[in-house]
Amino acid sequence: MPLDHEDTATPAEDFRDGGEASLSREFVLDVEGAIALGDAERVHELVGDLHEADLGALLELLSHEARPRLVELMGADFDFTALMEVGEATREDILEELPVETLIEGVRELESDDAVAILEGLEPKEQAEVLDALPAQERIVLRRSLDYPEDSAGRLMQTTFVAAPPFWTAGRVLDFFRECGEENLPENFFEVFVVDPGYHLLGTVFLDALVRARSSVRLDEIMQEDRRRVKATEDGAEAARLFERYNLVSVPVVDESERLVGVLTIDDIVDVLQEQASDEILALGGVNPEEELTDNFWWIARSRFTWLSVNMLTAFITSSVLKHFQLQLEQMVALAVLGPIVAGQGGNSATQTMTVAVRALATRELTRANAVRIIFRELAIGAVNGAAFGLVTGIVAANWFHNVGLGPVIALAMFTNLVAGALGGIVVPLAFDKLKFDPAVASGPFVTTITDVVGYGAFLTIASLWFHLG
Amino acid sequence: MPLDHEDTATPAEDFRDGGEASLSREFVLDVEGAIALGDAERVHELVGDLHEADLGALLELLSHEARPRLVELMGADFDFTALMEVGEATREDILEELPVETLIEGVRELESDDAVAILEGLEPKEQAEVLDALPAQERIVLRRSLDYPEDSAGRLMQTTFVAAPPFWTAGRVLDFFRECGEENLPENFFEVFVVDPGYHLLGTVFLDALVRARSSVRLDEIMQEDRRRVKATEDGAEAARLFERYNLVSVPVVDESERLVGVLTIDDIVDVLQEQASDEILALGGVNPEEELTDNFWWIARSRFTWLSVNMLTAFITSSVLKHFQLQLEQMVALAVLGPIVAGQGGNSATQTMTVAVRALATRELTRANAVRIIFRELAIGAVNGAAFGLVTGIVAANWFHNVGLGPVIALAMFTNLVAGALGGIVVPLAFDKLKFDPAVASGPFVTTITDVVGYGAFLTIASLWFHLG
Asked: What positions belong to coiled-coil segments (chains A, B) (predicted)?
């Protein structure tokens, strides 16, 4: 049956408003139904025209069992690039279930960077089988990429690129492109790299510079001799920072001997940047960033448990402070009622400071050059807000318990705790950063321990002195 | 004095390791010294060869006073694109101090999207003066961009682009580029837009497709008829999502009548994406995202105060629960000592769930299609960890206070609170999202109120029943 475009219009085709396609619940149910029935024709009808990104989103929404079934039903028509658009967990879910022949077919049709991402997700035995089935030239290139460390530029890079000697003219390059034909050029490219006979990078000619040059101009006359490049062994996150800072669209990747081995493009880097942001957010919330990659219930529960255990210890430290003042609490139960306000407000204020500090460290806006200025600014903010909240809490507490003395006591404790929290909120992340620990992961429990201990400690000490307790 | 490259090598020139340049403290001090002395020659020597991104980073590190002085000392050699690389606060700092003549010169040399960003930062009177001094054609284009809402695609877009009719051949386009010369083409471009006589977009030919086509091929034979486009009035954040989802490098911008008016490129979008991530992180930490844009101490203090006030209210709610159990606390002070452990652990556990939920909502991984599944998963994790921490805390508490009954009491309270926290941590962000409030901003205080009230409430109620208190 020939595909009828009117009939097979999916929600993914409507971009008139520039919005992304959202896969409707009905559409997903339709696909699930067709998969359950093993109706390959209907699956083709529904899914055949989807953009790879929408196909990826669809795969995420399907059940574990349905995912590999969809790939099988699509057969040779399945677009393997869709596997680049799903999370690692979903990808491995699918790859696990696919026969080696399907994998070989899939890897063969992918660009080198995507092929590497697929191969990474395979068991060593399957990886070897797939590699062995590929033509020697492809195999060598993919093996070399896989030899680079995980998350390195070498894994992310595209190994097909266009390089030419410096004495070629613009006209000659254009003739070369036309003769070359589709298969021998990368699917998408932005530039021609100018290299010497040893493949050392001399410069870059972007396509827009190439097309506006006269035919007789030599490449070395129009190339940009930008020295920005990335080592293949370097971490992808470092490369991402370079893209971000210098607004790059692509950057050459070189090996240890400065030979050109690939190119990193912005679309891969956007994913790295987004992942970094996710990791920072999750770490600040006390969640292991790896969690997003797994659906394994017990793994998640255990990972959350680990971080909560650290907090448990800090909670017992706080309780020890309270236990130390047991006598005073018995004598004046209002202290037990009001204590959490002092501790909690300090914790929230310190969390504000800490969040600003962690973010500024990540974006490199907080450096040694301005750290002292920012520490003083945060201390001043802590003092101002400490005074303000001290005043408010003092008035409320004194009236609530009909005890005038409680006013100045809680006000002073509040002021002390907000200043201490401000100091802890900025110094702790700075210290972790200096010690090369990720401040987003480590700062939280430390900072709240400070505000809990100082909050309860200051409040109960000041109260004991004022009211002559204990 | 001719510039000697050996002498003026700045740290910014070393990219051999692919790392970004870090401006050394010594270098910044040198620049500051030269500015203080008004030594234009020395400033040129030090700063003249800096990349715009590094010049921007340098401006951020200088004092308020030194920033506009640097621009003046550099005169016509100052690269205005550096102002795109600094925060809004710094940019306005500088623009405020610059004479209108300098501004006019600067705006004239910028690409349209950057010029719009500069004009946005000016006072209405100055903006009009600068616009009036520009050639009519530029003025009209910039005015139109400024008419679009703030942060819209129309403000971010580049208004110079290459468009051609569908019947032009690849060869004719290449000839056109060569005849056109530098000035009449955009500084960087990736594609030729194919338009009808009314400037309606028919398709796109990327340069790599153009250069591999035979000269006689018509554009409409090689163009991609992708319907993805962005309305100029649309929010930049929506456009960013499109780029991210479909790995785009550029996207056409159309006006209300579907006419091509500009192009959005990935380098602008990367900034939007990074800003979104920053906003989410700061919001989760209880910080107003606008804060990063200002150095105004009182503004920051007041903005932090506002959010802390909300938390203050929730702290008093918690205290009211404690006050309700005043009698029981007096009878058994151990409850006052242990209560914060139950409340705190519930709060931390709920924050984990909330962070995962907020992130998944932002990345659209959490949708109506899988919400129920995720709610049950979080409840199960809360129950498992509640049971585990209940057991541990129970054993510790019973031994610490030599009171066997405290064991089951705190264990049951802990379990209850972690389950309640899990429910709150996922349902609260989902509810805010549904009500079109930003869940990152609003969820925190709600969720911790739940765990505080349930934590203290459950612990003290169970204890009262078990020990027959009150």
From this structure: none
Q: Which of A182, A285, A359 faces B282 most closely, judged by CB atoms?
A: A359
**Residue B50: both structure tokens together:** 């800096």
- What's the CATH number where A58 sits? 1.25.60.10
| Residue numbers in B near A208 (CB within 8 A) | 185-186, 188-190, 207
B315 contacts in chain A (CB < 8 Å): 340-341, 344-345
DSSP label of B192: E
Which residue(s) pair with B195 in the sheet?
B201
- Six-digit token string for A409: 């006591």
Q: How far apart are CA B361 and CA B428, in angstroms?
A: 12
- Proportion of chain B above pLDDT 90, given as a percent: 47
A150 plus A168 within the same structural domain: no
Among residues A445, A447, A118, the alpha carbon closest in space to that of A307 is found at A445
In terms of Cα–Cα distance, which of A257, A252, A271 is closest to A157? Answer: A252
Contact status, residue B120 vs residue B91, Cβ threshold 8 Å: no
- Cβ contact B452–A231 (<8 Å): no
Contact between chains at B178 and A214 (C-beta distance less than 8 A)? yes
Structurally, how many domains does chain A consist of?
3
Which of B192, B166, B194, B197 has its CA nearest to residue B180?
B192
- Same domain as B345, residue B246: no
Q: Are residues B394 and B413 in the same domain?
A: yes
Residue A354, Ramachandran bin (φ over 0: left; ψ between -120 and 50: alpha; else beta): alpha
Q: Under a CB-based contact definition with an 8 Å cutoff, are residues A29 and A59 in contact?
A: no
Nearest CA in chain A to B305: A385
Partners of residue B325 on adjacent β-strands:
none
Asked whether the predicted pLDDT for residue B385 surpasses 80, the reply is yes
Helix (H, G, I), strand (E, B) or coil at A201: strand
Residue type at position A448: T
- In a domain, residue B443? The reply is yes
The model's confidence at residue A148, banded by pLDDT at 50, 70 and 90, is very high
Q: Pick A111 or B353 by higher pLDDT.
A: B353
Helix, strand, or coil (residue A356): helix
Beta pairing, strands A250-254 & A260-265: antiparallel
CA atoms within 13 A on the CB side of A215: 10
- A253: closest chain B residue by CA: B18
Copy the structure tokens of residue A262: 């690939």
User: Is residue A294 very low, low, confident or very high in pLDDT (cuts 50, 70, 90)?
Assistant: low
Can you give the three-state secondary structure of B12-32, one letter per residue? HHCCCCCCCCCCCHHHHHHHH
∠ Cα B18 B24 B26 (to 5°): 155
Q: What backbone phi and psi angles, to 5 degrees, belong to B287?
A: -120, 135
> Are residues B302 and B346 located together in one domain of the fold?
yes
Q: How many contacts, defined by CB atoms under 8 Å, are there between A and B?
A: 353
List the structure tokens of A385: 């807000």
Which residue in B267, B270, B284 is closest to A284 by CB distance? Answer: B284
Write down which residue in A219, A246, A265 finishes a domain: A265
Q: B142 and B217: one domain?
A: no
Q: Write down which residue in B155, B184, B201 finishes a domain.
A: B155
Quick check: ipTM above 0.85? Answer: no
pLDDT of residue B137: 85
Residues in chain A with CB shorter than 8 Å from the CB of B87 are: 365
For B89, the 3-state DSSP assignment is helix
CA pair distance B146, B166, nearest whole angstrom:
31
Buried b (16+ CB within 10 A) or exposed e, B280-292: bbbbbbbbbbebb
| pLDDT at A244 exceeding the cut of 90 | no
